[in-house]
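Appendix B. One record, verbatim.
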Amino acid sequence: MSLRVLNPNAEVLNKSAALHMNINAAKGLQDVLKTNLGPKGTIKMLVGGAGDLKLTKDGNTLLKEMQIQNPTAIMIARTAVAQDDTSGDGTTSTVLFIGELMKQSSGALMKVLTQDFWLMVLMLPREQLLSFSRNSRHQLLLVMSLIGIP
Protein backbone atom coordinates (compact mmCIF):
# COMPACT_ATOMS: atom_id res chain seq x y z
CA MET A 1 0.00 0.00 0.00
CA SER A 2 2.67 2.48 -1.01
CA LEU A 3 -0.13 4.59 -2.50
CA ARG A 4 -1.47 5.22 1.01
CA VAL A 5 1.97 6.44 2.08
CA LEU A 6 2.10 8.94 -0.79
CA ASN A 7 -1.49 10.09 -0.42
CA PRO A 8 -3.44 9.08 2.69
CA ASN A 9 -6.70 10.31 1.09
CA ALA A 10 -6.30 8.12 -2.00
CA GLU A 11 -9.17 5.80 -2.79
CA VAL A 12 -8.05 2.20 -3.31
CA LEU A 13 -10.39 -0.23 -5.08
CA ASN A 14 -10.13 -3.91 -5.80
CA LYS A 15 -10.05 -5.10 -9.42
CA SER A 16 -13.75 -5.74 -9.88
CA ALA A 17 -14.75 -2.44 -8.24
CA ALA A 18 -12.30 -0.56 -10.46
CA LEU A 19 -13.68 -2.33 -13.54
CA HIS A 20 -17.24 -1.41 -12.57
CA MET A 21 -16.19 2.18 -11.90
CA ASN A 22 -14.58 2.45 -15.36
CA ILE A 23 -17.62 0.95 -17.09
CA ASN A 24 -19.93 3.30 -15.18
CA ALA A 25 -17.78 6.27 -16.19
CA ALA A 26 -18.16 5.29 -19.84
CA LYS A 27 -21.92 4.85 -19.37
CA GLY A 28 -22.19 8.25 -17.69
CA LEU A 29 -20.36 10.02 -20.50
CA GLN A 30 -22.49 8.16 -23.02
CA ASP A 31 -25.70 9.17 -21.21
CA VAL A 32 -24.70 12.84 -21.29
CA LEU A 33 -23.90 12.87 -25.00
CA LYS A 34 -26.54 10.53 -26.41
CA THR A 35 -29.30 13.10 -25.92
CA ASN A 36 -27.70 15.59 -28.31
CA LEU A 37 -27.25 13.22 -31.25
CA GLY A 38 -29.23 13.87 -34.39
CA PRO A 39 -31.58 16.63 -35.50
CA LYS A 40 -33.88 16.18 -32.50
CA GLY A 41 -31.03 16.27 -29.99
CA THR A 42 -31.30 18.56 -27.01
CA ILE A 43 -29.20 21.66 -26.58
CA LYS A 44 -27.07 21.74 -23.44
CA MET A 45 -26.46 24.87 -21.38
CA LEU A 46 -22.94 25.16 -20.04
CA VAL A 47 -22.30 27.59 -17.22
CA GLY A 48 -18.69 28.70 -16.74
CA GLY A 49 -17.01 29.59 -13.47
CA ALA A 50 -17.50 33.29 -14.10
CA GLY A 51 -21.18 32.81 -14.92
CA ASP A 52 -20.81 32.92 -18.69
CA LEU A 53 -23.34 30.79 -20.60
CA LYS A 54 -22.85 28.61 -23.66
CA LEU A 55 -25.64 26.84 -25.50
CA THR A 56 -24.40 23.97 -27.61
CA LYS A 57 -25.32 20.67 -29.14
CA ASP A 58 -21.80 19.96 -30.36
CA GLY A 59 -20.18 16.97 -28.69
CA ASN A 60 -16.70 18.39 -29.18
CA THR A 61 -17.57 21.60 -27.37
CA LEU A 62 -19.25 19.68 -24.56
CA LEU A 63 -16.26 17.42 -24.02
CA LYS A 64 -13.79 20.31 -24.08
CA GLU A 65 -15.83 22.35 -21.60
CA MET A 66 -16.77 19.54 -19.19
CA GLN A 67 -14.62 19.04 -16.11
CA ILE A 68 -14.18 15.27 -16.21
CA GLN A 69 -12.58 13.63 -13.17
CA ASN A 70 -12.56 9.91 -13.97
CA PRO A 71 -9.40 8.79 -15.85
CA THR A 72 -11.34 6.41 -18.11
CA ALA A 73 -13.86 9.10 -19.02
CA ILE A 74 -10.96 11.49 -19.71
CA MET A 75 -9.42 8.97 -22.13
CA ILE A 76 -12.76 8.50 -23.89
CA ALA A 77 -13.17 12.27 -24.18
CA ARG A 78 -9.64 12.66 -25.58
CA THR A 79 -10.31 9.90 -28.11
CA ALA A 80 -13.51 11.59 -29.25
CA VAL A 81 -11.87 15.02 -29.50
CA ALA A 82 -9.01 13.48 -31.51
CA GLN A 83 -11.61 11.97 -33.84
CA ASP A 84 -13.13 15.41 -34.34
CA ASP A 85 -9.72 17.03 -34.87
CA THR A 86 -8.81 14.42 -37.48
CA SER A 87 -12.02 14.19 -39.46
CA GLY A 88 -14.03 17.21 -38.35
CA ASP A 89 -16.96 15.14 -37.08
CA GLY A 90 -17.88 12.06 -35.07
CA THR A 91 -17.25 13.19 -31.51
CA THR A 92 -20.62 12.15 -30.14
CA SER A 93 -20.67 8.96 -32.20
CA THR A 94 -17.25 7.98 -30.88
CA VAL A 95 -18.36 8.44 -27.26
CA LEU A 96 -21.56 6.48 -27.90
CA PHE A 97 -19.64 3.68 -29.62
CA ILE A 98 -17.04 3.36 -26.86
CA GLY A 99 -19.72 3.55 -24.16
CA GLU A 100 -21.72 0.79 -25.82
CA LEU A 101 -18.61 -1.35 -26.19
CA MET A 102 -17.91 -0.92 -22.50
CA LYS A 103 -21.51 -1.79 -21.59
CA GLN A 104 -21.52 -4.90 -23.77
CA SER A 105 -18.12 -6.02 -22.54
CA SER A 106 -19.09 -5.78 -18.87
CA GLY A 107 -21.23 -8.92 -18.98
CA ALA A 108 -18.71 -10.87 -21.03
CA LEU A 109 -15.80 -9.79 -18.83
CA MET A 110 -17.55 -10.82 -15.67
CA LYS A 111 -18.06 -14.31 -17.10
CA VAL A 112 -14.49 -14.96 -18.21
CA LEU A 113 -12.29 -12.76 -16.05
CA THR A 114 -10.93 -15.17 -13.52
CA GLN A 115 -7.26 -15.57 -12.78
CA ASP A 116 -7.32 -19.30 -13.47
CA PHE A 117 -8.99 -18.78 -16.84
CA TRP A 118 -6.37 -16.28 -18.00
CA LEU A 119 -3.54 -18.50 -16.81
CA MET A 120 -5.07 -21.35 -18.77
CA VAL A 121 -5.45 -19.23 -21.91
CA LEU A 122 -1.92 -17.89 -21.75
CA MET A 123 -0.17 -21.14 -20.80
CA LEU A 124 -1.84 -23.84 -22.85
CA PRO A 125 -1.14 -24.23 -26.57
CA ARG A 126 -3.93 -23.63 -29.04
CA GLU A 127 -4.67 -27.31 -29.65
CA GLN A 128 -5.27 -28.00 -25.96
CA LEU A 129 -7.54 -24.97 -25.67
CA LEU A 130 -9.68 -26.14 -28.57
CA SER A 131 -10.18 -29.54 -26.98
CA PHE A 132 -12.52 -28.09 -24.35
CA SER A 133 -16.25 -28.66 -24.44
CA ARG A 134 -18.38 -27.03 -27.13
CA ASN A 135 -19.77 -24.39 -24.71
CA SER A 136 -16.33 -23.24 -23.65
CA ARG A 137 -14.91 -23.33 -27.16
CA HIS A 138 -16.80 -20.24 -28.38
CA GLN A 139 -15.65 -18.18 -25.39
CA LEU A 140 -12.09 -19.41 -25.75
CA LEU A 141 -11.96 -18.56 -29.47
CA LEU A 142 -13.26 -15.08 -28.69
CA VAL A 143 -10.70 -14.49 -25.94
CA MET A 144 -7.89 -15.95 -28.05
CA SER A 145 -8.74 -13.62 -30.91
CA LEU A 146 -8.85 -10.65 -28.54
CA ILE A 147 -5.40 -11.33 -27.14
CA GLY A 148 -3.89 -12.19 -30.52
CA ILE A 149 -3.49 -15.97 -30.43
CA PRO A 150 -4.01 -17.24 -34.00
